[in-house]
């Protein structure tokens, strides 16, 4: 029962917040990779590219699946989650087309209320109501403030750790 | 005559019906994953992502025309491949006895242009390493239906659309796979990866998935 990562996408299809809760594995054997034209890419830049690529992949997947669910289930059908053998992806879309995506281990149950709570008690309180945060969070501006990050960490601990402690 | 007799007859009738439901033949039939089953549709996608079989059984999902189903199948095939590559799970810790598993995430962390189905390029390092097998979407929940996807070892995907409360969808979809093996694969006139036009398969699948 663990959480792997969390993304927020806004209505302009941009990733305004992403967070990984697990350590990524160490970079592959070669210390730097070479692109086709021979230039080398430093590891830090590669990691950043990989992160943004992951966010784009997640958004693309979620967007296509949502469209598929709308097509099959009717206009009011909502895509909730999908599960593979390695992870489970939970999705919540707010009326303002803000999309919250949570990736957890596959055994986790329905996380819809958790996502809703993150939105209502953390995002709305610490980002939307913040007078310093802009209305449009282009490039993630205004979202990653201390209160929101701290609140999110504590919330995830509260949701995912108690189960582990109970199991022990 | 009168109330007494009718009362006795009613009691006898209810007693008989009770014993009938406890009849061993009826009892044996009861606990099956397919009783009270509501299956909306079955789609089969071949290795390349083309739709080879589509059949709706009960109303529950929107009626789409054949072109839309083809597009849906192709889209799902692509999403299935991408879902294998966004695996965020951390690698299992390497143990001393078994070979260290460098991780589906390392394989998966290659950016999109690489097909996730390709094995990673030569890794100078551990010759005894085995690439862990990452799977794609197995089940998808929406508010009106649940999609169960079973991928056979040869890459053929079986998509089963059921109501969200339907239990044991993986048993049902495996049974469909068995029927596919028995009636389509063993049919000498069926050409691989082509649309399935086998009447026996249609009949058997309808018999299994449609409950009157």
TrEMBL record, chain A:
Residues 22-42 have a biased composition (Polar residues). Coiled coil: none annotated. Its main location: endoplasmic reticulum. It is found in: Endoplasmic reticulum; Golgi apparatus, cis-Golgi network. One of its GO terms (cellular component) is Golgi apparatus. InterPro entries: Longin-like_dom_sf, TRAPPC. Belongs to the TRAPP small subunits family. BET5 subfamily. This is Trafficking protein particle complex subunit. It comes from Friedmanniomyces endolithicus. The gene is bet5_3.
UniProtKB/TrEMBL annotation, chain B:
Keywords: Endoplasmic reticulum, ER-Golgi transport, Golgi apparatus, Transport. Residues 83-135 are annotated as: Disordered. GO terms for cellular component: endoplasmic reticulum; Golgi apparatus; TRAPP complex. It is found in: Endoplasmic reticulum; Golgi apparatus, cis-Golgi network; Golgi apparatus. One of its GO terms (biological process) is endoplasmic reticulum to Golgi vesicle-mediated transport. InterPro entries: Longin-like_dom_sf, TRAPPC. Residues 96-112 have a biased composition (Low complexity). It holds the Pfam family Sybindin. It comes from the Eukaryota. Part of the multisubunit transport protein particle (TRAPP) complex. Belongs to the TRAPP small subunits family. TRAPPC4 subfamily. PANTHER family: TRAFFICKING PROTEIN PARTICLE COMPLEX SUBUNIT (PTHR23249), TRAFFICKING PROTEIN PARTICLE COMPLEX SUBUNIT 4 (PTHR23249:SF15). This is Trafficking protein particle complex subunit. It comes from Friedmanniomyces endolithicus.
